[in-house]
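Entry type: protein chain
Record version: 2
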Amino acid sequence: MSLHTPRDIPLFIRSENASSERRITPSWSIAHLKAKLESVTGIPPSSQRLTLRLPGQDDIAIEAQDEESTQVGAWRLQAYADIYVFDTRPVSSRPLTLNPDSVPKYTMPTSTYETLPSTVLAWKKAHKLGRFDPSAPDVGQRKVEEAWREVEERNIKLMARCRLLPESHRRGHVAYIGPVPEIPAAHTKNLPWIGIILDEPQGKNNGSVGGTRYFECEPRKGVFVRPDRVEMGDWGVAGLEDEDGFGEGDMEEI
């Protein structure tokens, strides 16, 4: 059973040293929200100053004289908007944050590592795993073929309407079909990704990944997903059919 109610709203929580997507329940008090955010940002509730950032609007302070009883739902929370958490403590009073780049590190030469007997590399060699598997190229090719077959079976075509699964509130149209080498998970060459321009700013990019442009769209309206995440159909614009823009059980991304 899900611990989240249908009223939970996904928001981006950002601070100087953290960024994370979380679901917020509008019935929470400001004090309860701050207590939740301490584990995300590392900032004590008493030292937090919250600001709601909505597209095209000035920052809105989330504060009240009685934060124990004032609900965060009193503010116009929108899905995938930003809540910025400021640390009001003087810099000198904050925990020391050490820049790891300033710490001297030992880097073992590759030639030395490859000769050691009790390493992950040695274990993979012994069990013929990964790049040491003689059949590895065939496995990778099968994955590519299966993914392209998924594109064909789902009838995924450019400019056609679609929605993302497993939720249904994020809808748009297909703008790109093909490999995206810049995606860290796209290790297999020629593995297809589906680029989608969403109706609402609920995506991750503007049609570019790692400096490579694949299609043009407004910021946060672009998203790349696997073919099995796409359902084609003559879907209407989300928000016009449903009053709140998404239904119960739609929000499954964290």
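Comment: DSSP finds four helices and twelve strands in the chain.
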